[in-house]
């Protein structure tokens, strides 16, 4: 982090709608608060497996609540997340491993593009309700985010490389080391120690802890 700026790491996976909400709020506040926002693409499946966590919708009452909650938050934060009951099956049936490896490859190549690229994945999956698991869909997202076809091709080739696979695994392990059990996991490095905040509804508290 730059002098005097609080480093805030956002561990996220584009399969998670709450991560999209947290991402948009932090992207807005990175210009208002004295923070250095670092986007950390990780794999939610790995976090769930390592901690024994289950998707919220596995508990029917919680699934019911989540439908209302996401609608309210989408309206409040002005983020075009659309959710319906059918989405739970859609999430269980979609692997974001390829998408998160693609985003990781971007992080290793041109991290400046992480924000628009990640946003386009969320828009495609959570606003347009399109698939993001197939290479042709990833291509469409990359085009939408303004990537050149050369860069897109390079990133697609990187997806299957050990370097990218290891980087995504390491980032996921780093989130676990901070105590993450789901996403978004936001870690603020303040007064020489990491402070973990889970979810998109703890950002006021994060602000308070870092004196914003």
Automatic annotation (TrEMBL):
CDD domains: DsbA_GSTK (cd03021). It comes from the Eukaryota. Transmembrane segments: none annotated. Its EC number is 2.5.1.18. GO terms for molecular function: glutathione peroxidase activity; glutathione transferase activity. The active site is at residue 16. This is Glutathione S-transferase kappa 1. It comes from Uria aalge (Common mure). The lineage of its organism: Eukaryota, Metazoa, Chordata, Craniata, Vertebrata. The gene is Gstk1.
């Amino acid at each position: 982090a730059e002098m005097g700026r609080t480093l805030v790491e956002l561990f996220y996976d584009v399969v998670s709608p709450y991560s999209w909400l947290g991402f948009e709020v932090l992207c807005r506040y990175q210009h208002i608060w004295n923070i250095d926002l670092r986007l950390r693409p990780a794999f939610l499946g790995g976090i769930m497996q390592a901690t024994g966590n289950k998707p919220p919708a596995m508990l029917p009452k919680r699934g019911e609540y989540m439908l209302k909650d996401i609608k309210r938050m989408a309206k409040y934060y002005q983020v075009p997340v659309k959710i319906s009951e059918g989405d739970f099956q859609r999430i269980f049936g979609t692997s974001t491993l390829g998408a998160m490896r693609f985003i990781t490859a971007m992080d290793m190549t041109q991290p400046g593009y992480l924000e628009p690229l990640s946003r386009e994945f969320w828009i495609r999956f959570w606003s347009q309700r399109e698939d993001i698991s197939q290479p042709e869909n990833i291509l469409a997202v990359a085009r939408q985010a303004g990537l050149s076809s050369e860069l897109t091709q390079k990133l697609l080739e990187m997806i299957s490389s050990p370097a990218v696979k290891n980087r995504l695994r390491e980032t996921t392990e780093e989130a676990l080391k901070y105590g993450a059990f789901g996403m978004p996991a936001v870690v603020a490095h303040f007064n020489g120690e990491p402070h973990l905040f889970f979810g998109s509804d703890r950002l006021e508290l994060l602000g308070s802890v870092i004196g914003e």
